[in-house]
Amino acid sequence: MEIINTIGRRKTSVARIYMQAGKGEISVNNRTIETYFPFDLHQIVVKQPLALVGEDGAYDIKINVDGGGIKGQAEAARMAIARALCEINEEHRGALKKEGFLTRDSRMVERKKPGRRKARRKFQFSKR
């Protein structure tokens, strides 16, 4: 099996992954997944597509993430892994799409507007 290269995005995070057959080792930015994502919740989010299709421990995955925060990076990696699993076996597409792993979550932080304190927060009104 050749190396499969896919990309996933969430908020301002971008995750590029390289997946190949192996023993189930996952590295994120040249570190183990346990050291890069110290919280169990983020590790579970990254491994969700593999667990859903029953391919846990079947592939070695090298993830490069950039931008955003920890949660956005974990969800971007989840999307990239789901896309790679669809490239490997098209039968996985239905289950992954039903869980929403193939859909790009396009919600972003709203920009700050000029003349305001935050994106929507206005200055306190004074009658006199």
Describe the structure.
Keywords: Ribonucleoprotein, Ribosomal protein. Belongs to the universal ribosomal protein uS9 family. Residues 106-128 are annotated as: Disordered. This is Small ribosomal subunit protein uS9. The structure is a single chain. With 128 residues, the chain is of the alpha+beta class. The chain contains four helices and five strands. It has a five-stranded mixed beta sheet. α2 runs parallel beside α3 (70-88). The chain is elongated. 29% of the residues are buried. The model has no long low-confidence stretch (mean pLDDT 93).
Write a short abstract of this structure.
The chain is an alpha+beta fold and 128 residues long. It is 34% helix and 23% strand. Strands 1-2-5-3-4 form a five-stranded mixed sheet.
Assembly state of the chains shown = single chain
Mean pLDDT: 93
State the total count of DSSP E strands: 5
**What is the CA-atom radius of gyration, in angstroms?**
18 Å
| Outline type | elongated
Number of helices: 4
Distance between the termini: 74 Å
Largest sheet: 5 strands, mixed
Spatially, the strands of the biggest sheet line up as 1-2-5-3-4
Q: Helicity range of the residues?
A: 25-40%
Q: Uncertain runs with pLDDT below 50, 5 residues or more?
A: none
**SSE arrangement, N to C:** EEEEHHEHH
Structural class: alpha+beta
| Strand residue content | 15-25%
Pfam family, one: Ribosomal_S9
Biased composition (Basic residues): 113-128
Family: Belongs to the universal ribosomal protein uS9 family.
Region (Disordered): 106-128
